[in-house]
TrEMBL record:
Organism (species): Buttiauxella warmboldiae
PROSITE patterns: HTH_TETR_2 (PS50977)
GO MF: DNA binding
Name of this chain's protein: TetR family transcriptional regulator
InterPro entries in the record: Homeodomain-like_sf (IPR009057), HTH_TetR (IPR001647), Tet_transcr_reg_TetR-rel_C_sf (IPR036271), TetR_C_31 (IPR041583)
Domain HTH tetR-type per the UniProt entry, residue ranges: 10-70
Record keywords: DNA-binding, Transcription, Transcription regulation
Pfam families to which the protein is assigned, alphabetical: TetR_C_31, TetR_N
Lineage summary: Bacteria, Pseudomonadati, Pseudomonadota, Gammaproteobacteria, Enterobacterales
DNA-binding region: 33-52
Keyword Transcription among UniProt keywords: yes
Amino acid sequence: MSKSPRRNDPDRRARILQATLDMLVEHGISHITHRKIAAAAGVSLGSMTYYFDGIESLLSEAFTRFAHHMSDDYRSRLEQAGNRDEACEAIVDMICGEKIATSYNLQVMYQLYAYANRNPELKIIMQDWMRRSQQVLETFFDPITARILDAFIEGMTLHYVTDRQPLSREDLSRMLAKIVG
């Protein structure tokens, strides 16, 4: 006789949130459903309503979790820098590297931007994420430069992933040198 599935699955909520992000990337925000997410997470459809009030709360929590994860990676990379020059090198690594500037991450980010544009209460997720990024940058740069760098990182990451001929590390370093003076 086989055992029945465990009722207490401590990873279920996290699997649902990860499956939500995966479905965003695979189908886009306008084509995800509870059913698709439940199937991808390997949970019953009833688990969706047990853990989340609806698709809005599910998306909000998934996006928040993603933004915090990205902020943690960002902070971790910049905390390794000992000075401004090393911080600039870390910024180039974030733009050109394979951990932060991935196609998957960018797809989730732009789904968040589009969704938050139609759901202004979710702009808080983006605003908090920007604030955390800028605070980390302020370890090495003044607040205005930190804000410019935050926008630069975001924009250049998109360019790096989508350009037919992305800028070289050297070109990005020269651009950063102009920004930071």
